[in-house]
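Tokens in:
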């Protein structure tokens, strides 16, 4: 029977970041994933410089063989209405392809890789876990996204949760499509739905184009997506039909999930824990940070992997991401009729100060949030 200290189920950014940190402490770590990397992943695919800093990635080292599209501005509007162009005159974010990015992080994690293996059973035994009947682990970390099998085997019920749903496609444009695309690589375009319950994006990364839309309201998603694609064509942003099927995915916003994030010998991280930013839906940075925080909690547990000991992870998450519903937009929105929210939202999207200072800087870039300090500050907080 194969054995390890920590088995991470899911090889995405959350799982690989957690594994790399754990391997640095000397623990024996394995990553199990039902897919074989590199694999395609549904995701808009953009990261901030803080992500690269937290992961210790040098852009000059990463970029030569992969897509790393500098972003220097955004085009923000609403579907059916006008848009504003906001230019920062400097790189404020990067576009990536998740197929490349995830494979890079996984390969450098230093963990043993069990690829093409699905998790089929999880049994608590002798103070640890037996996975699939043939893998022993003292701790299991669920990092398999919204439908993570660890989350489901420990009580989560995704079908009953209030998740954000999205559809998107990413494809390499041919010469004709490149000529018919007015979206600039350095300026992703974001368009909010008229009711402000979601937004669509059109994001060019070199010659790859990613088009998608996500909504908090799960009804008639395909209609909203079709309306958005039609809007892009009607205003001349693209002149062609999307050549591939738009694929669906779901995720939970931070503060919405009721999932148990820590228990005896088990933690949930990334989208398995429901940590996407509430206003933008971005999940990569929260996933990576949760992986690093989970690793720190495991290391500080010093072999005592009880619920009480691993509960430090939840404290670290709350310290990093705050408590649910504490942003002013959420508080105000709870007391306004939805029609008012849509009208006010569309009006605010015409105000350049609001678009730049609130929508982009605060909601999408989280520009005021410093990097997760190389774990030194985290370690001190655990002992405080």
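Residues out:
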């Amino acid at each position: 029977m194969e054995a390890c200290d920590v088995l991470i189920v899911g090889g995405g950014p959350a799982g690989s970041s957690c594994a790399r940190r754990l391997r640095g402490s000397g623990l024996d770590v394995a990553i199990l994933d039902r897919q074989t990397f590199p694999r395609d992943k549904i995701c808009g695919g953009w990261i901030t410089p803080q992500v690269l800093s937290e992961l210790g990635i040098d852009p000059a080292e990463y970029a030569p063989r992969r897509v790393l599209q500098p972003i220097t501005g955004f085009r923000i509007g609403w579907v059916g209405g006008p848009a504003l162009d906001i230019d920062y005159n400097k790189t404020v974010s990067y576009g990536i392809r998740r197929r490349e990015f995830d494979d890079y992080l996984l390969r450098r994690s230093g963990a043993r890789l069990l690829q093409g293996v699905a998790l089929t059973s999880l049994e608590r035994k002798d103070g640890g876990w037996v996975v699939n009947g043939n893998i022993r682990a003292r701790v299991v970390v669920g990092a398999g996204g919204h439908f993570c099998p660890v989350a489901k085997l420990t009580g989560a019920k995704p079908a009953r949760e209030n998740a954000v749903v999205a559809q998107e496609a990413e494809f390499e444009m041919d010469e004709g499509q490149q000529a018919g695309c007015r979206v600039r690589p350095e300026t992703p375009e974001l368009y909010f739905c008229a009711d402000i319950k979601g937004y669509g994006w059109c994001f060019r990364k070199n010659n790859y184009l990613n088009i998608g839309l996500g909504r908090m309201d799960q009804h008639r998603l395909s209609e909203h997506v079709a309306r958005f694609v039609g809007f892009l064509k009607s205003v001349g942003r693209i002149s062609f039909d999307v050549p591939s099927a738009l694929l669906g995915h779901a995720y939970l916003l931070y503060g919405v999930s009721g999932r148990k994030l820590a228990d005896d010998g088990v933690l949930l991280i990334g989208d398995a824990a429901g940590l996407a930013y509430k206003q933008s839906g971005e999940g990569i940075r929260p996933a990576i940070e949760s992986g690093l925080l989970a690793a720190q909690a495991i290391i500080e547990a010093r072999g005592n992997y009880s619920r009480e000991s691993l509960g430090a992870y939840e404290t670290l998450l709350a310290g990093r991401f705050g408590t649910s519903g504490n942003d002013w937009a959420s508080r105000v929105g709870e007391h306004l009729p939805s029609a008012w929210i849509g009208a006010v939202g569309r009006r605010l999207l015409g105000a350049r100060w609001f678009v730049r200072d609130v929508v982009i800087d605060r909601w999408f870039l989280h520009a005021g949030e410093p990097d997760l300090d190389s774990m030194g500050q985290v370690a001190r907080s655990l002992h405080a």
